[in-house]
Design a protein that fits this description.
four-stranded antiparallel beta sheet
């Protein structure tokens, strides 16, 4: 690993070279922009949060004329006559189920993973997904600056299609810490639910209940004690979240410089 990460083995994007001499690290999932946390669920699946880029703060790769999946996409963006065509617009933060070998839509030219999200396959709105039921919004995972007909891409080896998020979480949430709750609080009503810390918009802990297969969010709500408006404390930049064997929840708040502890009430089952 030390050899693989040395300066002479970094490519132009400052990522470890594909050659990876003497390196035993492998990529499990790719196309992830800014994952803060992930957790292994008792159902055997892996869930993670991923933060999107804000509007106008980045660009996606320019695709050379005649580009097709598997081709190189390392052409520098500065060669474009009109860089504004490639500016990334706002995209929702997302809740993901991570699977081995899947590409999740954030391009990495050093791996020849070039297409952002679902591409732009049709003239209509593509890959529109409903967000949390408590918000009543939906989000399109397409990139309209691509020519119509641009299909979603698989991973660098051309295997597995682009994997859509389990759930869009909304704009600028900065969804960070995540746990799969394992406690028996409230007669086990929350066991297996995903709890996510929203660092920015909302400053809260969000609860997501999965279906039995763990492949879909069927219910979501804000933990009432995590926001002042719902009868709790006013959190400020909650970042990390953890739990203990008794079902207590611990949240590290950056701006408040404290750790808040949520202790479940005892109820008769």
């Amino acid at each position: 690993p030390d050899v693989a990460q040395s300066e002479r083995n970094l490519d132009e994007t400052r990522k470890a070279s594909k050659a990876k001499p003497n390196c035993d690290v492998e990529v499990f999932s790719s196309g992830l922009r800014n994952i803060w946390d992930f957790d292994f669920h008792p159902n055997g699946r892996i869930y993670a949060t991923d933060n999107a880029v804000g509007s106008g703060r980045a660009t996606h790769p320019k695709l050379p004329n005649g580009w097709k999946p598997g081709d190189d996409c390392n052409e520098p963006l500065t060669r474009s006559d009109d860089l504004s065509k490639y500016i990334v617009v706002d995209r929702s933060d997302v809740l993901l189920e991570l699977r081995e070998g899947r590409y999740y839509g954030h391009p990495n030219p050093s791996r020849n993973e070039c297409i952002r999200d679902a591409g732009n396959p049709t003239r209509g709105v593509d890959a529109r997904l409903a967000g949390p039921s408590s918000e009543g919004r939906s989000y399109a995972f397409e990139t309209t600056s691509y020519p119509v007909g641009t299909q979603a891409q698989g991973n660098e080896k051309g295997l597995f299609p682009y994997k859509e998020p389990l759930l869009p979480l909304g704009l600028s949430k900065s969804a960070n810490g995540i746990i799969a709750y394992r406690g028996n609080a409230f007669c086990g009503a929350m066991r297996g639910d995903l709890l996510v810390a929203y660092y920015s918009v909302g400053d809260q802990i969000k609860r997501f209940k999965l279906n039995n297969a763990g492949t879909k969010v069927v219910f979501d709500e804000t933990l009432r004690r995590s926001t002042k408006s719902t009868g709790g404390e006013e959190m400020n930049n909650p970042l990390s979240i953890a739990q203990d064997d008794d079902g207590n929840i611990y949240v590290a708040e950056y701006r408040n410089a404290r750790i808040s502890v949520f202790v479940p009430k005892a109820v008769k089952c």
